[in-house]
């Protein structure tokens, strides 16, 4: 399975978990989008540094674009493949959704006790 396909699967799954499965509806809040913008700026910096210095490399058969690393273009943003955006979005969203869900669950349990 390619990194592209995994990223394309991860985003809808994260959205389904948030909006349908646990119903935290994190992505519907302004707070989420402000936090995500801050997070993605950090992701660009870290990914750019790691990929631009070739500390992290990607198999060009697993990503969009080619192995030719450039700052922007050829399906790259800050040297990293565009798939990193989708995958990072899903990872951060699932982390926040899990945190909110467990916090609410613990609050309900405490209220019963």
UniProtKB/TrEMBL annotation:
The chain crosses the membrane at residues 6-23, 30-50, 85-102. Residues 2-100 form the Lycopene cyclase domain. It is a multi-pass membrane protein. GO terms for molecular function: intramolecular lyase activity; lycopene beta cyclase activity. Keywords: Carotenoid biosynthesis, Isomerase, Membrane, Transmembrane, Transmembrane helix. Pfam families: Lycopene_cyc. GO terms for cellular component: membrane. Pathway: Carotenoid biosynthesis. GO terms for biological process: carotenoid biosynthetic process. It is found in: Membrane. InterPro entries: Lycopene_cyclase_dom (IPR017825). This is Lycopene cyclase domain-containing protein. It comes from Flexivirga endophytica.
């Amino acid at each position: 399975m390619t990194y592209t396909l995994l990223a394309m699967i991860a985003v809808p799954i994260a959205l389904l978990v948030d909006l349908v499965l646990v119903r935290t509806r994190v992505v519907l809040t302004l707070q989420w989008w402000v936090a995500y913008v801050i997070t993605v700026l950090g992701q660009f910096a870290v990914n750019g540094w790691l990929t631009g210095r070739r500390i992290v490399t990607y198999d060009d058969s697993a990503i969009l674009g080619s192995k030719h690393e450039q700052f922007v273009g050829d399906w790259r943003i800050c040297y990293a493949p565009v798939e990193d955006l989708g995958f990072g979005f899903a990872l951060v969203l699932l982390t926040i959704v899990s945190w909110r869900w467990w916090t609410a669950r613990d609050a309900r349990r405490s209220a019963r006790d």
